[in-house]
Design goal:
This protein is α+β, with helices and mostly antiparallel strands. It contains 4 helices and 8 strands. It catalyses: N-terminal N-formyl-L-methionyl-[peptide] + H2O = N-terminal L-methionyl-[peptide] + formate. It comes from Candidatus Defluviicoccus seviourii.
């Protein structure tokens, strides 16, 4: 296994749609997945998409640590999702602060679907089909955006809610602006 170099915002690999994986059981895919998991853990992050490590393939890895799991849901162990498809369960959305390993030092307030169903393949070519909500749903949506060449800053609706994480934590939005404070939302949310 190896720690891979993470592409940063501006690199062409992050602006293009990733290609589907033909054989999830191929040895080069297994090696890439193992390296992605090691890279995600080393960063540290909660998710990583293959394009972020210069591999334009439809693969994501993620987990939801206990500290970020919804109160009524268990943490999600490290999960590998190949050729994922996301379907929103309804129109309900939440705003929360996001960060990204490919956009270091920055954070932004992003609206995402609160509940989704996602499907995809595992490395042993079995179908994975889950319903996710809250932070779990947010992480999956964030990572799958990478597969379509979309970085979270493109989803920030008001650029007053985008900036250097350190500054936004130091000078948080007031509660009268009605937005969650980044120090309450960001935590371990880099992906």
């Amino acid at each position: 296994m190896a720690i891979l170099k993470i592409a940063r915002m501006g690199h062409p690999v992050l602006r293009q749609a990733a290609a589907p994986v033909g054989d999830p059981r191929a040895p080069d895919i297994a090696r890439l997945v193992a390296d992605m998991i090691e890279t995600m853990q080393d960063a540290p992050g909660v998710g990583l998409a293959a394009p972020q490590v210069h591999a334009p393939l439809r693969i994501v890895v993620f987990h939801v640590p206990a500290a970020r799991a919804e109160p009524t849901h268990a943490p999600v162990p490290i999960t590998v999702l190949i050729n994922p498809v996301i379907v929103p369960m309804d129109e309900e959305r939440d705003a929360a602060w996001e960060a990204c390993l490919s956009v270091p030092g920055l954070t932004g307030l992003v609206q995402r679907y609160r509940r989704i169903r996602y499907t995809g393949l595992t490395p042993d070519n079995k179908t994975l089909d889950r319903v996710a909500e809250g932070f779990h749903a947010r992480v999956v949506q964030h990572e799958c955006d990478h597969l379509d060449g979309v970085l979270y800053p493109a989803r920030v609706q008001d650029l007053r809610h985008f900036g250097f994480a350190e500054e936004i934590r130091r000078y948080p939005l007031t509660t009268s602006e009605g937005q969650p404070r980044p120090q309450e939302q960001e935590g371990e949310g880099r992906s």
